[in-house]
Design a protein that fits this description.
The structure holds two protein chains of two kinds.
Chain A lengths: L3 E3 L9 H8 L5 E3 L7 E3 L11 H5 L6 E3 L18
Antiparallel strand pairs in A: 1-4, 2-3
Chain B lengths: L6 H14 L5 H11 L3 H27 L8 H27 L6 H6 L10 H10 L6 H9 L2 H15 L3 H8 L2 H18 L3 H29 L17
Helix pairs in contact in B: 1-8, 1-10, 2-8, 2-11, 3-4, 3-6, 3-11, 4-10, 6-11, 7-10, 7-11, 8-9, 8-10
The chains are: A alpha+beta, B mainly alpha.
């Protein structure tokens, strides 16, 4: 199954992904326990491509990428777009 | 470096708070954790209450932010305040993450509903929150002195002690990872007091506000410690009353 990761060179740490992931009770997005407190995605919990909510809300182009292909999913390409 | 007017005051407040930072009611909890460890229920109580307090900082800072007018202070002061709001939000997220990862609650909504995460009006936590919120009408350097050179220094001290006594790497990480941000809040407090507290009356207000904030924070810490050690049941929810005029 394909999976997601955050590109910290592009992420603005706005935390929209964290908020939506909490709201829908998937809880895959979390705050890393290092002093930088960066946002990360728990691959054990993330249900991508079943859920693409974080991609729908992320404002920073290229900040969430597909691990296997390395392609940017922000803004979401048409084939991963899901109506909320 | 120019001679800053509030330098001596900042040093005085920091040294006083540092001297008190390892003498808070949390020391009893730290000693108990060192001796017997932390049960899952006690860890849930700890994360739940600290999460509730962090959530309330949105309310405190919301009030404080309204008192920051354009041109009152240089943009750097407002930037520092914004950074502190973001950091507090991060700490709130850390406590919620810990509750979810540990399986104390299955969802965010359950965390809000759980008795350990409910905001109770009749509590030392609420008293402390309202005490901070009441500082909204004071000039920004005074309330920043109160919090950042008072409870923040106490917090830095007990968190260091608690994380050293915790065996669980995730719980330890929750506290250890906050150290840089907490140190930054203390440093920004020092800088704001050094630069903007000029008059003797302002210095007296800083001393007063700092002492009040620490007194009320210590009361919260006493409640927290007793709650985590299972010595005190959470206060029952306040009855709802219809108010008519």
């Amino acid at each position: 199954m394909p999976s997601l990761k955050i590109d910290h060179e592009r992420c603005t740490e706005c935390r929209m992904c964290y908020i939506v992931c909490r709201e829908i009770d998937i809880n895959a997005v979390y705050v890393d326990l290092d002093p930088l407190h960066r946002i990360e995605i728990d691959l054990q919990k993330c249900t991508y491509p079943g859920c693409t909510a974080c991609l729908m809300y992320c404002p920073a182009e290229g900040s969430i990428i597909e691990v296997e292909t390395g392609r940017s999913l922000v803004p979401p390409p048409p084939e991963v777009w899901q109506e909320p | 470096m120019p001679d800053l007017p509030g330098r001596d005051l900042a040093r005085e407040l920091i040294e006083k708070s540092r001297g008190e930072s390892r003498a808070t009611p949390v020391e009893e909890m730290i000693e108990a954790v060192r001796k017997d460890g932390l049960t899952a229920d006690a860890a849930h109580r700890l994360m739940g209450r600290l999460w509730t307090l962090e959530r309330m900082f949105y309310y405190v800072y919301g009030g404080w932010g309204q008192g920051l007018e354009i041109n009152d202070f240089p943009p750097s002061v407002k930037y520092l305040f914004s950074k502190q709001i973001v950091d507090e939000s991060t700490h709130e997220m850390l406590y919620l993450d810990a509750q979810l990862h540990k399986g104390f609650v299955p969802t965010q909504k359950d965390a809000f509903r759980h008795p350990y995460g409910v905001f109770t009006l009749d509590s030392a936590l609420a008293y402390y929150v309202f005490s901070l919120r009441n500082l909204a009408t004071y000039p920004h350097p005074i309330r920043i002195a109160a919090l950042n050179l008072g409870p923040k220094i106490l917090e830095f001290g007990w968190m260091e002690g608690l994380s050293a006594s915790l065996a669980d790497p995730e719980l330890k990480g929750v506290f250890e990872s906050q150290a840089v941000e907490n140190r930054s809040h203390i440093n920004m407090g020092r800088r704001i007091v050094e630069e903007f507290v000029k008059e003797p009356v302002e210095a007296e207000l800083c001393r007063w506000a700092c002492a009040i904030a620490k007194r009320d924070y210590n009361r919260f810490l006493g409640e927290l410690s007793a709650f985590v050690l299972g010595r005190e049941a959470p206060a029952p929810p306040a009855p709802r009353r219809q108010v008519t005029d």
